[in-house]
Design goal:
Structural class: mainly alpha
Distance between the termini: 31 Å
Number of domains: 1
CATH class: Mainly Alpha
Shape: globular
Strand content: under 5%
Radius of gyration: 18 Å
CATH architecture: Orthogonal Bundle
Number of strands: 0
């Protein structure tokens, strides 16, 4: 199988610059229709904001691991800039709808750090999570009737799809460079947990009540298709489904 060239950071950065949206001028904050957003949507947005707000801790954990890789380190600096931008945009949206995320809420759990021992683990943890996140925001944008939330989620989803593209490229590079096979990838996938578990204590309950209805099985199909392309046949996703939606199996991806 011939590997596709690794996505260089300068190309990724150029695309980011072309599609970067402005918090002040591209979102019509005065156009919010509070009568059109539902309580369930607001609670979903609040939980999503808390995950996005965990970005400084994610970045601190990962930049140390990838300090010997200029391409990946540069990508992470852009990704977590954009993720924290998402947090502040969602936080503002909630505030304008009468819901406040305090600084204490936004920083709860940030003292808990993760020490990664291999580069494969975080690439899967954050790369797979980007699949769920990109689809989640895309579908929330389609389903909500509130126009500002619709626009905001559409912008965020596009950012997440760009992040996903880089992660997939880096994952393929890692598989080729370290000659990883399906058994090794499965061993890592069996320890998977969405990054949201770091940020939200009741992540599994949130996922089952709110998150899953916005994604369905599509993330698993996207992931399996890319695993087949990059690793070959033999990868299994059952563990991901269990560790995302069943509390006894949910634990942090160390």
């Amino acid at each position: 199988m011939v590997a596709r060239p690794r996505l260089p950071f300068d190309k990724f950065f150029t695309v980011c610059e072309q599609h970067r949206w402005k918090l002040e001028s591209d979102i019509d904050w005065n156009g919010i229709r509070r009568d059109l957003v539902t309580p369930d949507e607001l609670e979903t947005v609040r939980r999503a904001a808390l995950v996005e707000g965990f970005s400084p801790t994610y970045a601190a954990d990962l930049l140390d691991l990838y300090c010997d890789d200029p391409e990946m380190g540069s990508f992470l600096s852009i990704q977590f800039y954009e993720e924290y931008k998402h947090f502040h945009a969602l936080r503002r949206y909630l505030r304008l709808n009468g819901i406040e995320i305090s600084d204490q809420d936004a920083t709860r759990g940030h003292e808990n750090r993760t020490k990664y021992t291999t580069k494969l683990i975080p690439v899967l943890k954050f790369g797979v999570s980007e699949i769920f996140t990109a689809i989640f925001y895309r579908n929330l944008s389609k389903r909500t009737e509130e126009p500002v939330l619709k626009a905001l989620c559409r912008f965020i989803s596009r950012d997440e799809y760009r992040h996903l593209g880089f992660y997939l490229s880096y994952f393929e590079h890692l598989v080729r460079q370290e000659k990883l096979d399906a058994a090794q990838v499965n061993a890592a996938l069996e320890r998977y947990q969405h990054q949201g578990l770091d940020a939200i204590e009741d992540w599994v309950e949130f996922w089952n009540l709110n998150g899953r209805k916005y994604t369905g099985i599509e993330p698993y199909l996207v992931l399996q298709r890319n695993l087949n392309r990059i690793v070959g046949r033999g990868t299994r996703l059952r563990a991901i489904a269990e560790r995302t939606s069943r509390r006894p199996f949910a634990s942090k991806f160390q």
